Amino acid sequence: MASIKKREDGQWRARYRDAAGKEHARHFARKVDAQRWVDETTASVVTGQYVDPKAGKTTVRQYALVWQSAQVGREHTIRNIDVALRIHVLPIIGDRPLASIRPSDMQALVKTLSATLAPGSVRETYKVAGRMFSAAVDDRILAASPCHRVTLPRDDRPEVVIPTVEHITALATAVPLRYRALVVLLAGSGLRIGEALGLEVSDVDFLRRSVKVERQRLPSGRIGPPKTAKSARTVPLGQVVIDELAAHLSEYPSNGPLFTLTTGKPLTYRTWRAIWARAAEVEAKAREDAAAKVRPHVDTVRLDVDTHALRHFYASALIAGGASVKVVQSRLGHASAVITLNTYGHLWPGDDDLTRDVMDAAFGILADSLRTSPANEG
User: Fold this and answer.
1) Where do the H-state alpha helices sit in 96-164?
2) 123-147: pLDDT as tens digits
3) Which of 50, 72, 89 is the last residue of a domain?
4) What is the pLDDT of residue 283?
5) d(CA 96, CA 146)
6) In a domain, 146, yes or no
7) How far apart are CA 317 and CA 311, in angstroms?
8) What is the distance between the alpha carbons of residues 373 and 365, in angstroms, rounded to a whole number?
9) Count of H helices and E strands in the chain?
10) Is the pLDDT higher at 15 or at 331?
11) Of the residues 294, 327, 350, which one is the last residue of a structural domain?
């Protein structure tokens, strides 16, 4: 219900009740302005687009904490939301009212973050902020999200660096013997490190030469579901990998986790990261020393390899062997072929010669016809 009434001081008092029954009022010098305000507000209430003007006074921090506490998802997702808000967004705009944030403020936030973060990290942080502001619109706290027409930094990540067989062999030799099979498995199956650390002995089928991925070990050490629905898969294993895993279990038997510590407890990501860092340092130093002996006055370029590079090696080997995009996607457990192409598209052989052959075949009849046409006689 809305009404307009003239006050003794000549002002026009317009009032209305929102969907919750709460009364709101404003004063205008002209009746026509009061009527316009009442009409617009009443229409928004009727159509369900009404936003309480006072709701926007809630600070970004206050709303973000409530919104974050209601989020559900995998451990990795929840942690990313916390990092994006607590470390990157709230220190900059957290104390400002929600309704005061404009697209220009979000653009300024992106620019500030770009000074210290990689483009991919900036994009992920902005995505979290966008979800939060969209939720505020759905909750009728904001009329519109400020995450609109904001230019994000280009993600100009270099193409993946593929380690050589010699490189992987050196790395497998550099890690303690107890974990050599893990290096061989990662390079020979394309499993993510969390997936490999989450394997049980029963997941390896030595007869069919395959490994079943049904879970992953999270950075916290807990066991969780695979990264995506497509990540749950069965991966064929070559004989070299199968033999290495068999030798590993013969030397380090287990009735549970495939890879364990000397205490018998499961190998965790944190422990593996320290082991891998030491091995990579040893391998890199050995390679630099070898190069220096051959070319003592030439600077060598170090190829810093993380565990994920072994996954790249596996993908590149499949592609070099003629595997299709769908096969590589399936083996790696990518959610879509787009991810596979975006990461490894440059590794597939060029199609220039194929295009020429196809077009020559298609135009073969036309070419013969042109050569024998009357216009070419005489």
Assistant:
1) 103-114, 119-138
2) 999 999 999 999 998 888 888 899 9
3) 50
4) 76
5) 13
6) no
7) 10
8) 12
9) 16, 8
10) 331
11) 294
